[in-house]
Amino acid sequence: MGRSFDVVVIGAGPAGYVAAIRASQHGLSVACIDGWTNRDGKNAFGGTCLNAGCIPSKALLESSELYHRAQYEFKKHGIQHAGVSMDVSAMQKRKAGIVRQLTGGIAGLFKANKIDGLVGQGKLLAGKKVEFMPVSGEPEVLAAKHVIIATGSTPIEIPVAKYDDEFIVDSWGALDFATVPKRLGVVGAGVIGLELGSVWSRLGSEVVILEAMDDFLAMADRDIANDASKQFKKHGLDIRLGAKVTSANIANGEVNVGFETADGASSLAVDKLVVAVGRRPFTDGLFADDAGVTTDARGFVEVDDECRTSVPGVYAVGDCVRGPMLAHKGSEEGVMAADLIAGEIAEMNYAVIPSVIYTAPEIAWVGRTEREVKAAGIEYKTGSFPFAASGRAKAMEQPGGMVKIVASKVDDELLGVHIVGPMAGELIAEAVLAMEFSASTEDLQRTIHAHPSLSEAMHEASLAVDGKALNNVNK
Ligand code: FAD
Ligand code: NAD
Questions:
Q1: Using CA atoms, how far apart are residues 351 and 348, in angstroms rounded to an integer?
Q2: How far is the CA of 455 from the centre of ligand 2 (A)?
Q3: Which domains, and CATH codes, for the chain?
Q4: Which of 26, 77, 81, 451 is catalytic?
Q5: Is 81 a catalytic residue?
Q6: Which atom of ligand 1 is nearest to the CA of 37?
Q7: Which pLDDT tens digit goes with each residue over 117-148?
Q8: Using one digit for the tens of pLDDT, what is the confidence trace for 183-222?
């Protein structure tokens, strides 16, 4: 028998490493096992988010947006330049440096919090034992009073376009292109398709995104999705809705993609194809036959509202359980699980998890869309305010988009806040806080917002809910 711990966490992504830190803050002895291996063969903590997701994608979004703005926007400001060019390898080096710093930061946090960060695979055995298989050395069976499973997710592969990791790649591959593909195909106009499609489009790729559904961004409010769709089109993203991919053949250094739309069968030749059709929970090799933890039909670990699995003392958090696959959702679940293990009262407010798509313009929302509120039979009112009427947005040369608020007609409570426009991902935090406190539109109306700031659009949208917007014609 090997070492024993109060808590063993399997997975050191944003769900697992945060759970480990919080458990340690409670004075519990903690081990966190992670087997992530980067393409250079090196292991790193941080999971998908830090190594192949949130952080590297945002690094590239920032670089590519600056390049795009330097090309198309600087002249409007009167900034003259003889032309700009992009050094893709320097961009990738910057990205890799950020990832290295942050993943190294987690190792530092583990040390500071006296957490045993164990590099290798973990397997849950019966009786809250965990088999740890280090990258080198002998396996060890750890005894745990509590186990937290945080093994994350992995890209879905579709049979008609299997990854070959050179021409047909997943999101990780699309973050690592060494040169700008002349023609880039993307399967799926979801969050990844839009973010990574934007990166390479801004750097010069001709990007075509094939989306199976007829609705663009089905999970977003319709007004926001329609506005975003127009802006993306203007920026050169070619998004084809109702396009079902039927084949993808690699020949002569290109990929020939077959797809069907309402108009019939078509094809498209591209230099690279990114498949971004969603992710599946990752639990491969995780459970011994008698581990006792149940999974649902789609492979998600089954948990209750407090992330307890079917085995007492075993919790599961993050992408491997139900709910949106978002880093901040996983982290908060990790905190909740650790607090519950320590005997504290803890809960998660699943109704107010913000979503952000880091395109230009950014898209962000919290709560319910107008369509959802209507379908629920709730009496509601809405108000919106365009950034075109915001002095700050104009000064920033980013006057596209709007803030839209959906509120209850009965008691004025905020039900949903939806934004497309500059810094939407930052602006949404005010709405999240307001909704966490069950605020009304009147609360927002009476809150003083700095002038000139983008946040005034939130204020004006709340006023517009009652036909009282000051800097826009109320319709
Ligand atoms: P993961 O981050 O996947 O971590 C799980 C870890 O467990 C991994 O290191 C894995 O190797 C390890 N593991 C698995 N099985 C075992 C085992 N048996 N033994 C040991 N270790 C194991 N979300 C956002 O909120 N904002 C964003 O901007 C954003 N951008 C994204 C961009 C891209 C391109 C992608 C792909 C995802 C993005 N996401 C974003 C989603 C986000 O990355 C995930 O929601 C988040 O990483 C989930 O955290 P997690 O801890 O549950 O799992
Ligand atoms: P997604 O669910 O956001 O989008 C997948 C899209 O692919 C959908 O629109 C779907 O209709 C479409 N699709 C599915 N099968 C298809 C097919 N055969 N042909 C054409 N289209 C098809 O998934 P994703 O973009 O892969 O992202 C995965 C997860 O990662 C998401 O759940 C997301 O929450 C998370 N993520 C978040 C961020 C962020 O928070 N900014 C960024 C990237 C990823």
A1: 9
A2: 29
A3: 4-155+280-348 (3.50.50.60), 159-277 (3.50.50.60), 352-464 (3.30.390.30)
A4: 451
A5: no
A6: 11
A7: 999 999 999 999 999 999 989 999 999 999 99
A8: 999 999 999 999 999 999 999 999 999 999 999 999 999 9
